[in-house]
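User: Earlier you gave me the apo prediction for this protein. Now I'd like the version with S-adenosylmethionine bound, so I can compare the two side by side. Same sequence as before, with the ligand SMILES added.
Assistant: Got it. Here's the input I'm using:
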Amino acid sequence: MAKGHEHEPVLHGPVLDALRIRADGIYVDGTYGRGGHSTAMLARLGEEGRLVVTDRDPQAIADARAKFADDGRVTIRRANFAEIGSIIDELGLSGRVDGLLLDVGVSSPQLDDPDRGFSFQHDGPLDMRMDPDSGESAAEWLARADESDIARVIREYGEERFARRIARAVVRTRETTPIERTAQLAAIVSEAVPGPPSPRHPATRTFQALRIFINDELGALERALDDGIDLLAPGGRFVVISFHSLEDRLVKRRFAKAARPPPASRRLPTVEPFVARLNLVGGLVRADEDELVRNPRARSARMRVAEKPAGEAA
Ligand SMILES: C[S@@+](CC[C@H](N)C(=O)[O-])C[C@H]1O[C@@H](n2cnc3c(N)ncnc32)[C@H](O)[C@@H]1O
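And here is the structure of the complex with S-adenosylmethionine:
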């Protein structure tokens, strides 16, 4: 994550090492953000190289257009990376991509802009959509959802122990007052969560859960993981950075499923021999101490890398 527009993007060096950029290669940055990774990738690409960037956030895409509209190597698409398969297909690049990067989650500019409604620290409309032109805002969903669904979302995506209390407090409040502001929700959660003050704001988990749910972040990642493998050229690299254990688990499992035979077939004779669609490259990569000093938000970043076997076509 380019946690902060002026800062270097998260895991900058490890991402570039993992992508092994060739001057004439074809690369995809599915999560442009403010272009920290894209800029570094372009610096390594020659005249023959190509970079496709996508983001679902209109402000991210406006930034990409402002910086790269005149660069003939760059193709910019506003899109959900769940659609990465059809986007790359339409460009005629399926099976030819040398590196695909997904740096998932929310960007610093999104978090820091109160009007986007992601932050409990700055009051703003309770929106939370990365693409404000599609789907329901957090306020709209909280106004109509069942108490049990609110509790489930907060428990599953926020791993919040007090999910039921928070859901009850939300439903009680909305009976008399619409919940439309981030500060209002933060106050409702703070009041519902028992216990002594902790260093983390009591609404941290609830806000994270609602953001993941409202943007269907896990669903989009699952689709991109499935379709992304087919886009890669033999030897092409798939690099995913996530910030949440649920996301990292998805990446780990999907990569492992493509790289290793299922456990049962390791013992039983099978008709079809297992053919690996990916090879794992190293294990989990985290930010080192130097990076954490420069950028504390990199603390939860987790990177995994896989490679399409040479000789394996799309
Ligand atoms: C962590 S930031 C990426 C930062 C970027 N690597 C940089 O160097 O500036 C995540 C970005 O991914 C975008 N994003 C998250 N989920 C997405 C999805 N499903 N489809 C497209 N973009 C998505 C967000 O809008 C945000 O701009």
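For your comparison, keep in mind: Residues 1-6 have pLDDT under 50 and may be disordered.
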